[in-house]
Amino acid sequence: MTAPTSTPKIQLIGVKKRFGSKVVLDGVDLTIEKQSSVVIIGGSGTGKSVTVKCILGILRPEEGTILVDGEDITHIGGAARDRVMKKFGMLFQGSALFDSLPVWENVAFGLIQGHGVPRSKARDIAIQKLAKVGLTEDVAFLSPAELSGGMQKRVGLARAIAADPQIIFFDEPTTGLDPIMADIINDLIISTVKDVGATALSITHDMVSARKISDHIAMLYGGRIIWTGPTGEIDNSGNPYVEQFIHGRAEGPIKMAVKA
Amino acid sequence: MNFLASIGRAVLTVLAHIGRLALFTGQALAGLGSPPIYGRLILSQIMRIGYYSLPVVGLTAFFTGGVLALQIYLGGNRFGAESIVPQVTVLAITRELGPVIAGLMIAGRVGAAIAAEIGTMKVTEQIDALTTLATNPMKYLVVPRIVAAVISMPILTAIGDSIGVLGGYAVSVYSLDFTGYTYLKNTMDFAHREDITSGLIKAAVFGFIVALMGCYNGFNSKGGAQGVGNATTNAVVTSSILILAADYVLTAILFHK
To answer: Do A102 and A159 form a contact (C-beta atoms < 8 A)?
Structure first.
């Protein structure tokens, strides 16, 4: 995305993924440099989440290569996958908090299970991370079901940064939030990513959020990345698909499948 | 032609399900033999599957033992064989009804709960979240439930067997004029160790089936509330059918002469 200075943090080369006869990713090429913040934009169902899930190893692409720090992780499993997963943190669209665990244990989960940190130490770290996203200690002992949507997003963010990951993924971080809370979450994303020194890959169709949290934007359409560039240049992309999308116009080359 | 195509599609769907289930079972068994072992989760599942199922298994076992004694008495009465009530009751309870009734009750109570819980975790991306937190969902969710069910079911069945015999005793003594001492002596004299152990082996297998089908259907649930509902129904139905099928196979193997 930026001028290459070293090995890219993440590189996708010709990644293809289909579900049955439906081709979702049809040769995605994307390069993300270290400590950059990239947002993938695109309409619903264009494969943004599938792209991230392929990087995370939740889905396996049929073709193509995914490199993290130059290492091919496309088909790795077992201990090698566990080692790579420790580099990742993820904020899910619906927060995906474990409702059987209290808030602090949600935040500390990766530390306890993935990194073998003792529970008492992990609880202290969880409370520190909750403070970073603006939540007080008393929240730590509540159940996720007792929190509002905005608070759940904050807890999800605290969980994503708990183990100081090198790469953080954000899946529709502001969807379903009111504009003020969405802006608060955007600010938290910027500050926490900078704080941790991580590389960020976000997916969203919220252009306000995309402009705010990214330094580069890539647009996914028809299973391919059709435009990439610095965030400041997106208004002058010269790409009719990008222009239609960022201005939210019904008329243009992008045709939404609407059943009568 | 359309008719043949629909038959072909149905066959392919069934074969795909069998293949997926075989792969899932293989992954679960592989997870059993490799660290990490989540001891705390296994203990909490033993409480959920075993301890909290005691009332329902105990009640059904009691009434099953009672009705069994009554039916044997009424049937035996036709050819003057009323006295075989304790012997046939203990045999039927320990070999068949104890493990099967416990298995079906656990399928309804625990299999459904496992499928609903894991299904909800699937549709709310909690299972994906586990993966991103460097935790293998098979080892964290499936293995503890299978281990807990395989441990709990024989214990539940042993308790259910005792309560079932007690149900037969209560009906025989208080309704059919048997003497308590004679009933218990005939029961103890007639029941062999292999009658009890065969039932406990069956119970362990039924526990494996219930936990496996609950987890499998939960993991494969799609969509929202309806998908979770379908997963729950499928878990109970497939577990129940597999329990009865496995019961026949195990009986044929364990009592093969």
So the answer is: no
